[in-house]
Amino acid sequence: MQGKKLLIVGDGEFAAIAFEYFTHDAGREVVGFAVERAYLKKSELFGLPVIALEDVESRFAPARHDAFVAITYTQLNRVRARLCGIVKAKGYALTSYISSKAFVWRNAVIGENCFIFEMNVVQYGARIANDVVLWSGNHIGHQAVVGEHCFLSSHVVVSGYCHIGESCFLGVNSTLGDRVKVGRDTIIGAGAVVLKNVGDRQVMRGNPAVHAGIDSFRVFGVKVES
């Protein structure tokens, strides 16, 4: 909710960016930062407290504060996804940021804990699921779907009716042709042009894009899930 104060989870570069954008573009009051105790290395950031996530409810009551998890694509987005689950279990509502300089059509759907930078275009009927980062300058075509926990770096083109599965990473200047389906946990390399459907856990590169012969979990250091 806009009236609530905001807690940012994380204290790295993305957390600093989130503080800047939420404060100076969205008009939100950020009151502090939280990280897991094992990673607590500093006591403040921008003059605000950095506290252990394990104790955060005692300092910032969920009823009076929203949260945003500011983690990038570490372990193929799994760290951010895991922290979103922890924060929601504590009772916080996860908020999203949409830049005032982004264009989002009126019936596009944006989920929770999304961060949409400047110069993004999200067209008619597009759906951006929960916990998605759209870095600057992307195009999400009409009726396209971006699944949960994805990270799209800058100047990515997602054409109309595409469907991107969960936990994918799309590199700078990559392109998906019309109606392309991308499986979950897939990496689309920088500059890759994908014109055919792609399965799960693929690493795609080149123009036209081909499978690089390596598992995406290996690239991002993800342990195989049982």
Q: Average pLDDT value? A: 97
Overall 3D geometry?
Answer: globular
Biggest beta-sheet profile? 8 strands, mixed
Care to count the β-strands?
Answer: 25
Number of helices: 4
- CATH structural class of the largest domain: Mainly Beta
Strand content: 25-35%
N- to C-terminal distance = 37 Å
Low-confidence stretches: none
Describe the strand arrangement of the main beta sheet, using strand numbers. 7-10-13-16-19-22-24-25
Elements, N to C (H/E): EHEEEHEHEEEEEEEEEEEEEEEEEEEEH
CATH superfamily of the largest domain: Hexapeptide repeat proteins
Helix/sheet category = alpha/beta
Number of domains: 2
What fold name stands as the CATH topology of the largest domain?
A: UDP N-Acetylglucosamine Acyltransferase, domain 1
Rg result: 18 Å
Helix percent reads 10-25%
CATH architecture identity of the largest domain: 3 Solenoid
Task: Characterise the protein shown here.
The chain is α/β, with parallel strands linked by helices. The protein has two domains: 5-95, Rossmann fold, CATH 3.40.50; 96-209, UDP N-Acetylglucosamine Acyltransferase, domain 1, CATH 2.160.10. The chain has helices spanning 13-24, 56-59, 78-89, 216-220; strands at residues 5-9, 30-35, 44-45, 48-52, 65-69, 93-94, 97-98, 103-104, 109-110, 115-116, 121-122, 127-128, 133-134, 139-140, 145-146, 151-152, 157-158, 163-164, 169-170, 175-176, 181-182, 187-188, 193-194, 203-205, 210-211. It has an eight-stranded mixed β-sheet, with helices on one face. The protein has a six-stranded mixed β-sheet with strand order 3-4-2-1-5-6. It has a six-stranded parallel β-sheet with strand order 8-11-14-17-20-23, with no helix packed on it. The longest helix is centred in the N-terminal third of the chain and has 12 residues, at 13-24. The mean pLDDT is 97.
